[in-house]
Amino acid sequence: MRSPDVASSAIQVAEGSAIRAEEGAAAVDVRGVEHVYGRGAGAVTALGPVSLTVPEGSFLVLVGASGCGKSTLLRLIAGFERPTSGSVRTGGVEPVPGKGAGIVFQEPRLFPWKTVGGNVELALRYVGVPRHERLRRVPELLERVGLHDVADRRIWQISGGQQQRVAIARALAGDNPLLLLDEPFAALDALTRERLQEDLRQVSAETGRTSVFVTHSVDEAVFLGSRVVVLTQRPGRVALDIDVGLPRTGLEPDELRALPEYATLRAEIGHAVRAA
Amino acid sequence: MTSSISFQPDPSAEPGAQQAVTASRGGSAPPTAPPGAGASKYRRFGVRLLSILVLLLLWQLVASATRNPSFIPSPRAVWDQLVLTSTVHDGIRGYSGHFLIEHLGISLRRILIGSVLGVVAGLALGVVMGTVPWIRVVVEPLVTFVRALPPLAYFSLLIIWFGIDETPKLWLLTIAALPPVAVATASAVYAAPAGLVEAARALGATRWNVTRDIVLPNALPEIFTGVRLAVGIAYSSVVAAETINGVPGIGGMIRDAQRYLQTDVVVLGLFAIGISGLLIDAVLRVAENKLIPWRGRA
Question: Residue B7: pLDDT band by 50, 70, 90 thresholds?
């Protein structure tokens, strides 16, 4: 955890490939990764080469214009795809979907044949939690994402914002050391989005879990991230890698946004995104 | 019989698009039934009742005008046959020694057994076809071929193979019921939503978990449409199955009545088949709503 003392925390720009061992072991290690879609004349290099190290407990936000390969990078970290060249390691091993990382997608991707609670319960079952313990933990997980008394509801009976909360609860169910989020709030209205950002910030501070969050919103990046990486246009490379250094706890969202450092960071990252 | 013959994924069932729509609804409340739905339901019932009465009246008028009961029997004559075939009269039990309800019951039992066997086999075949590409390539033309055959056409072959008792009848209904379920299941399993499968894998689901918890439940609405189609086909094939040695059985009854020009009994048989068919479809509809509450909503 970073010091809550804002004044002393300097904004530092680091090389994308720099390994910052002082922050602990690497939860995610991306080395010289390039990813190409298609073959021959139609081949498109979507990403890279990119090198990144995400230390344990940090909240990394990947920002960039659409089509810059940030979602590709997240899918590589999730293990859904293998890089064309280079290597990706999570927790020291090659990533496999369903092992070591919870994932939240842009759409909730809930299973409509299950109730809200049933969706979370299924996630617990897949990681081998016994039945009696699942019944106890489902309401617990829903509470953690700010949902009460919705366990027996059907998916279409709750709002889009609530659905995405369930998706987050489901991703947290596995107790994985890593949480990957692919523009999870992009499809929500502004008010709902802000509320979910605030709650995610709190949940992440409480659980201290390493997170990688993809977004195209500069404000979302500064608000959520302990570190922000800006990717260039296709093929995506690291254009800016910056430690946010704002306090993770103890401040109200409005107070946080009112800090002069907040505005400085926003300006700097916004400039990098536009220039990328 | 036109729905989901090919394996093209149904564009309206594309989950990504629908989820995006749901998600963008944001914090709005879930939709509720429009006001006045109850009143219009009564009015619809009234209109239907009225149309039935008008049809009966027309029928009576045509019957009186033609004055030929072997060509068009009057509603009254059909009603009398209903009474006669449901009672013991002059020492004769119903029609050909069986009450109407027994004829119908035997036919319904054949339809039930044939449909269940056809649905189970179609389901198994459909899952395999939807999962293993080369099996689909090999089996699909065969299934489509059988589907295109009128049941009466292959009944002769079944008679040669299995004789004239119950076995060929059940085979006929099973073979008739199988293709729609197999095709519907195969196309739904094949078009499993990639997003949901990925989400399940991200949660740690095994291959078997994905099939049981995602692919099959997701295919249920289409499977159910296939089942309703299959029951309908079994239903319409039962008369064909009862053309030979079909008594007791409603099809056998109709065939016998035709031989003796008892037109009123033929018409009575048609009503028995039609009304019980509507009832069965209604039961299936209710079952569908109970079993698949998410249909059309997610």
Answer: very low
Return the CATH number at A86.
3.40.50.300
Site of tokens 């009128």: B150
Distance CA B264, CA B261 (A): 9
CATH of B69-291, picked from 3.40.1390.30, 3.40.50.2020, 1.10.10.60, 1.10.3720.10, is 1.10.3720.10
Q: What is the ipTM of this complex?
A: 0.81
Rounded Cα gap, residues B2 and B180, in angstroms: 10
Give A-chain residues touching B21 at CB under 8 angstroms. none
Please tell me if residue B204 touches chain A, with a CB cutoff of 8 Å: yes
Give the count of beta carbons closer than 10 Å to the beta carbon of residue A199.
15
Q: Is B138 on the interface with A (CB under 8 A)?
A: no
pLDDT tens per residue, range B95-135: 888 999 999 999 999 999 999 999 999 999 999 999 898 99
CA distance A79 to chain B (A): 9
How far is residue A268's CA from residue A265's CA, in Å, rounded to a whole number? 5
Chain segment B176-199, per-residue pLDDT in tens: 999 999 999 999 999 889 999 999
Task: State whether A157 and B25 contact (CB < 8 Å).
Answer: no
Q: What is the pLDDT of residues A234-253, one digit of tens each?
A: 788 887 888 888 877 778 88
Nearest to A123 among B26, B203, B297 (CB): B203
d(CA B180, CA B185): 8
Do residue A211 and residue A259 come from a single domain?
yes
